[in-house]
Amino acid sequence: MKRFEVFLPVVGVAVLLTVWSLTVWARVVDPVLLPSPISTFRAMWIGMTSGKLGLDFIKTVERTIYSTAIAAVIALPLGILLGSSEKVYRSVEFLIDFFRSTPASAMFPLFLVLFGVGDRTKISVAAFGAALVILFNVAYGVMNARKTRILAAKVMGASRLRVLWDVMLLESLPQTFVGLRNGVSLALVIVVVAEMFIGSTDGLGQRVFEAQQLFDMPDMYAAIFAAGALGYGLNLLFLTIERRFVHWAGK
Amino acid sequence: MAGAQLAAKVGPAGTLSDSSHRTAPHVTIRGLTKRFSDATIYDNFDFDIPRGKLMSVFGPNGCGKSTLINMIAGLFPVDAGEILFDGQPLSSIKFGYVFQSYREAMFPWLRAFDNIAYPLKVMGVPKAERTVRVEKIVANLNVKIDLNLYPYQMSGGQQQLVSIMRALIVEPEILFLDEPFSALDYEMTLFMREQLQRIFVETATTTVLVSHDLEEAVYLSDRILLLSRRPARAVEFVHYDAPHPRTLKTMSDPEFISIKAHCLEIFQREVRKG
Ligand SMILES: Nc1ncnc2c1ncn2[C@@H]1O[C@H](COP(=O)(O)OP(=O)(O)OP(=O)(O)O)[C@@H](O)[C@H]1O
Ligand SMILES: [Mg+2]
Questions:
Q1: In whole angstroms, what is the distance from residue B237 CA to residue B206 CA?
Q2: Mean pLDDT across the stretch A21-36?
Q3: Is some CB atom of chain A closer than 8 A to the CB atom of B152?
Q4: Is B91 in the A-facing interface, judged by CB distances under 8 Å?
Q5: Are residues A183 and A131 in contact, defined by beta-carbon separation less than 8 angstroms?
Q6: Ligand 1 centre from B99 Cα, in Å?
Q7: Cβ(B57) to ligand 1 under 6 A?
Q8: Distance (Å, whole) CA A54 – CA A45
Q9: What is the ipTM score, two decimals?
Q10: Are the C-beta atoms of B54 and B241 separated by less than 8 Å?
Q11: Which of A159, A214, B215, B263 is 20 to 30 A from A191 (CA-CA)?
């Protein structure tokens, strides 16, 4: 029994592929709308290695990374600053919660006016959305630093700055990584949506949209899977970094 | 004065000359008042902490034991009154503080060694000297723990031992321990009591131990402060001058038994009053 347990994680994938194949084989759905898994993965392979899909993939990666990086550069220091004083945080809490709850897509027209049709709009809207998520998490991480640990540092004679730097900052790291992971996921969502509609000529969003317009279903599914793989990969990347840097989390 | 003689026996030779200094209280608390939003914890509280003694604080749950040592250590502000050290207000006194919840007091991102060295880092001691001093205290206490481990990789007793070494590394003038053994199993508790006694015998540091175990409090202490329900009063300051280190035999010493019974009687009387 034990030997089969290593295969558990692939069971879901196998079931999905089987149901998909059977559906195509039995012609439950119009084959034009649902291509077979094989033709989909062939389209994905060709697109990624020699077609335009690979370039679109890289474009979307770039935009997502840029916007997350910009968001982090702004939100990390600001979150630490806000979190280190509960009074300051309480005074801007409403603003943060309000804009965090505002769908970032509603900001597109505004950013279009500010930055025009191009990468700058896509990246800045995604950065805006991600920054609020990161900010919120960092501030909470800093604020919820264990009181005992702060007292322990204080009784040793640590200054406020030192407590902030040596204790609160490290205490907030697990929550900060939650924020970074949520932030990068949100940034990807916003970037893909922006690529679909804001006069784009490249990116995974544009690829999905164009394939749909051309009724090229294998290409469309291939682009969707590529976007999924990207999201999953980014999440995995941040989890790996987190495990390396925050070895004490949850212990 | 049996107490002074004991201190003389225990204290480092160089500090014996000024005997009036040695018998003067180390900490003087006058008119201390502390309120939390809805409750008065201390109302015009006076108390002297003797120098070079191991003192226990014992009292009902929530009467303000932790609050008291936190105020003395300068962690909580007082609402009124003063706390003087050798007659001076708090300046640059080095405290050692051992918290009950070692899990929350250790820094999990630092290895045990760096946890112990951290107070020295705060004081600006160079790295090489920090290492030497940590190695010295580890050798002194005869500690056999792998200090390259992170706190979460250690047992509760090991963590609390690390946390005691972290408190002692600065050679504090006053050592506070807030229920330091209550999260440990019995075997570990017995071991840690002996460690604490050894440390006290070797350093004669003024020590304030909050304990919820009366037997432990009497067994370890020269003085037991019995507090009432809040607002806390010092109901009695019990002396027990049996020499350190105390052993299992101490527990069957008639004086030990009668002092323990006396403390228990006072405690029960105070609890019933509430
Ligand atoms: N930060 C705080 N804000 C409000 N009330 C507090 C605060 N800290 C302590 N108290 C209250 O003050 C009282 C004394 O608390 P303290 O922790 O000093 O008691 P204690 O004697 O150490 O109790 P225990 O035996 O449970 O450790 C308690 O009733 C507690 O609820
Ligand atoms: Mg307490």
A1: 16
A2: 87
A3: yes
A4: no
A5: yes
A6: 14
A7: no
A8: 9
A9: 0.84
A10: no
A11: A214
Residues 149-168 of A with CB under 8 A from B: 149, 151-158, 162, 166-167
> How many interface pairs between A and B have CB atoms less than 8 angstroms apart?
49
- Exposure of A2 by Cβ count < 10 A (0-12 exposed, 13-18 middle, 19+ buried)? exposed
What average pLDDT does chain B have? 88
List the single range of A82-86, B3-7, B93-97, B191-195 with lowest mean pLDDT: B3-7
Looking at residue B272, what is its pLDDT? 85
On chain B, the residues whose CB falls within 8 A of the CB of A153 are 122
Long-range contacts of B259-266 (CB under 8 A, 24+ apart): B259/B218, B259/B224, B260/B214, B260/B215, B260/B218, B262/B238, B263/B58, B263/B214, B263/B217, B263/B218, B263/B224, B263/B226, B263/B238, B264/B214, B266/B226, B266/B235, B266/B236
Which amino acid appears at position B226 of this protein? L
Q: Which atom of ligand 1 is nearest to the CA of B68?
A: 18
Q: Which helix (H) or strand (E) holds A207?
A: helix A204-213
pLDDT at A148 over 70: yes
Specify the long-range contacts of residues B122-125, CB closer than 8 Å, at least 24 apart.
B122/A153, B122/A156, B122/A157, B122/A158, B122/A162, B123/A156, B123/A157, B123/B170
Q: Phi and psi of A142, rounded to 5°?
A: -70, -40
State whether A155 and B108 contact (CB < 8 Å). Answer: no
Residues in chain B: 274
Dist. CA B266 → ligand 2 center (Å):
20
Nearest Cα to Cα of residue B140 among B168, B118, B159: B168
B255: left (phi over 0), alpha (psi -120 to 50) or beta: alpha
Distance CA B232, CA B217 (A): 19
Nearest Cα residue to atom 28 of ligand 1? B62
Contact B199, B167 (CB under 8 A): no
Is there an atom of ligand 1 within 6 Å of B36 CB? yes
CA distance B8 to B6: 5
Query: Which two structure tokens, joined as six digits, stand for A218?
Result: 């294998």
